[in-house]
Amino acid sequence: MSVDLKELATRGSPLTSGHRLCDGCAAPTIAKQVMLGAGKPVVIVQPTGCLEISSVVFPYTAWKTPYYHNAFENAAAVASGIEAALKARKRRGDLPPDFDVAIVAIGGDGGTYDIGLQALSGALERGHRMLYVCYDNGAYMNTGIQRSGATPFGAWTTTSHVGSAHKGKMQHRKDLTAIAADHNAAYVAQASPHNFRDLMRKVKKAVDADGASFINVISPCWRGWRFPEEETIEMARLAVETCYWPLYEVEKGKVTVNYVPREKKPVSEWLKKQGRFSHFFAPGNEWMIAELQAEVDRKWEELLARAGQR
Amino acid sequence: MPRLVGLTGDGAAAEAMRQIDPDVVAAYPITPQTEIVERFAEFVADGVVHTEFVAVESEHSAMSACCGSAAAGARTITCTSSQGLALMHEVLYIAAGNRLPIVLINVNRTLSAPLNIHCDHSDSMGSRDSGWIQLYCENVQEVYDTVIQAVRIAEHPEVFLPVMVNLDGFVLSHSVERLEVLDDDQVRGFVGPFRPAVDLLNLENPPALGALVPPEFHFEHKYAQWVAMDRARGVIAEVGREFGERFGRTYGLLDPYRLDDADLALVVLGSTAGTARVVVDDLRDRGIRAGMLRIRCFRPFPADEIAEALRGRKAVAIMDRAGTQGGEGGPVFGEVRAALYTRGVFLPVINYIYGLGGRDVPAASLARVFTHLGQVAEAGKVDRAVNYLDLRGWN
């Protein structure tokens, strides 16, 4: 499936302007790409987070589509319930048999990697026909940049400071995309907003899949990562070009890497543009760059091997 | 034609659920509720219900899925006990605040620690301020009848609040009693179709539910819930009356027994009322004017009705199957005493904490409470406000 830009421009955005997210935030861009990519009406479920508290402030909503926020850790379970309602109401004849909506949960990494992992795991295992999209900005940004399971090694956050004893977060991040794929979910992918054609194609596959699907999307946050706000999309691109954030998909166990850079950039290219990694470049901390580079290399090689693309 | 069967409380609850045939059931197993989900899963496997059964991975997800399904226009029921209800706690408030008419059957079991699977009311009392209507059942028949009524109460257009139907773990959940089961058509006719107030599958008029509500609106949202709770008082009585007109068993907010001319009275919730009736009869035979007031509806709290029912008694003992750990006495005691005081009903009131963790409540023990009440009535004052029934080693 290819994305026709002219046709796309006629669809109109289901997320209106006037929401309260920061200038340069990737989350609303991702949400729009997801909804446009679905190609059918979407019911949005959100855990608590930046996108939620900024887009639905009573008595306003920025969503021109049904929307439900319940709590922080349960978006996948709430979406499960909506999908169950859809099936039951169709069975009862309360909704026509051809009634088709995509049930899409969109949550940040805190609500997905950490506190929402159990609910996500349950929903993936049960195979509800729903899509869970994680916009991964690598920390609890809504509460003010605290470390999460998605925070990269060495990154400064307000709960992983850089001091004499510790140099930012001392653990590597959790590979949630791989965890989701190992649930035998119907469709699992990793995407980036800079490559919106790829992202939208993946969303379409996901919402048409017969079962639960999961897409992890990198979502650069200039407030938390400390870079100029106009460089959001560039930061996403660099994450992909350095292979920190590979674009790939997993269908029925088959792994496909969707983008292999002609020349893999060193991860320091991405790191040096972000204030959260500035201590990596202080004298004596060269080992931190090497450590993160080694992890990126190891994961990238592992992925290529899984895909049979090396 | 109604049919007579022998069923446990869990079995009766599952049978009522089968007949209601809800759109969605999302539930997780826990003792002593398990028999309800097991039986209902059997109905699902046999295709005798239309229900979409979601076997979730936790009670937190059970209540979350219930919120999603109720918000998507589906009639929704779940069931749990004890730790399960505690794990749901966060989402209970959201279900109520979102005004979702979910029915939850809670099989009362104590909360850990210490770990114990038996009955007391600490689980549901811990959720008493979550915004759920709470009904407590005395026997298996009432469990069955109340589950059916709960659907009507929750979905009443003036209410739209979730309802928790409570039955005592093991005492009711696992005891086989004589049960009159209505025809499927009678039950379906009584509950009628679900007409949701909000529907996430309405694409023409898409709702936004669960918004962030700033300080200038939050208080009004919460007050609207209180108004609905207030209205529920009348609706519970009305639904209980209509049930009686149709099927011969009438239910109200309170269930007084030989109370009108009683000098001494017990106030109880749940299955203990059955034992209390026997004790009251026995004392009456011996010339003691004993009576009992069973509170069927604890939320909304029928303060006016309780004060009126107890006015004129010489002494009253409030029975609490839960403590408050640091409060003065149990939760029922605190609320009943306050209701009496603010309505100018000044009489000696004592509290008994009893039956914790499944401690048996024999008739002889309740008779001792009446003996104590006799002394209090004679003295005209309370000797000891908070008492612990059949506690060993400390009294």
Provide the descriptors you would attach to this structure in a database record:
heterodimer; A: 310 residues; Rossmann fold; 8-stranded mixed beta sheet; 13% strand; globular; B: alpha/beta; 2 domains; 6-stranded mixed beta sheet; 12 helices; 16 strands
Write the layout of secondary structure elements.
The complex is a heterodimer of chains A (310) and B (395).
Chain A: H1 5-9, H2 27-38, E1 42-46, H3 50-55, E2 67-69, H4 75-92, E3 102-108, H5 109-114, H6 117-126, E4 131-136, H7 176-181, E5 187-191, H8 196-208, E6 213-218, H9 222-225, H10 232-241, E7 248-251, E8 254-257, H11 268-271, H12 286-307
Parallel strand pairs in A: 1-2, 1-3, 3-4, 4-6, 5-6
Antiparallel strand pairs in A: 5-7, 7-8
Chain B: E1 3-7, H1 9-20, E2 24-27, H2 34-45, E3 52-55, H3 59-71, E4 76-80, H4 82-97, E5 103-108, H5 122-125, E6 133-136, H6 140-155, E7 163-168, E8 177-181, H7 184-191, E9 208-209, H8 215-247, E10 254-257, E11 264-268, H9 272-285, E12 290-295, E13 297-299, H10 303-310, E14 315-320, H11 331-342, E15 349-353, H12 363-379, E16 386-388
Parallel strand pairs in B: 2-3, 2-4, 4-5, 5-7, 6-7, 11-12, 11-14, 14-15, 15-16
Antiparallel strand pairs in B: 1-8, 6-13, 10-12
Textual characterization of the structure:
The complex is a heterodimer of chains A (310) and B (395). Chain A has one domain (5-307): Rossmann fold. In chain A, strands 2-1-3-4-6-5-7-8 form an eight-stranded mixed sheet, with helices on both faces. The longest helix of chain A is centred in the last third of the chain and has 22 residues, at 286-307. Chain A has twelve helices and eight strands. Chain A is an alpha/beta fold and 310 residues long. Helix content of chain A is 37%, strand content 13%. In chain A, helix 2 (27-38) packs across helix 8 (196-208). Chain B is of the alpha/beta class and 395 residues long. Chain B folds into two domains: 3-247, 3-Layer(aba) Sandwich (Rossmann fold), CATH 3.40.50.970; 254-388, Rossmann fold (3-Layer(aba) Sandwich). In chain B, 42% of the residues lie in helices and 18% in strands. In chain B, the strands form three sheets. Chain B has a seven-stranded mixed sheet, with helices on both faces. In chain B, helix 12 (363-379) links the parallel strand 15 and strand 16. The longest helix of chain B is centred in the middle third of the chain and has 33 residues, at 215-247. Chain B is globular. The model of chain B has no long low-confidence stretch (mean pLDDT 98). At the A-B interface, strand 2, helix 4 and helix 6 of A face strand 3, helix 3, helix 4 and strand 9 of B. Strand 2 (67-69) of chain A pairs parallel with strand 9 of chain B, so a sheet runs across the interface.
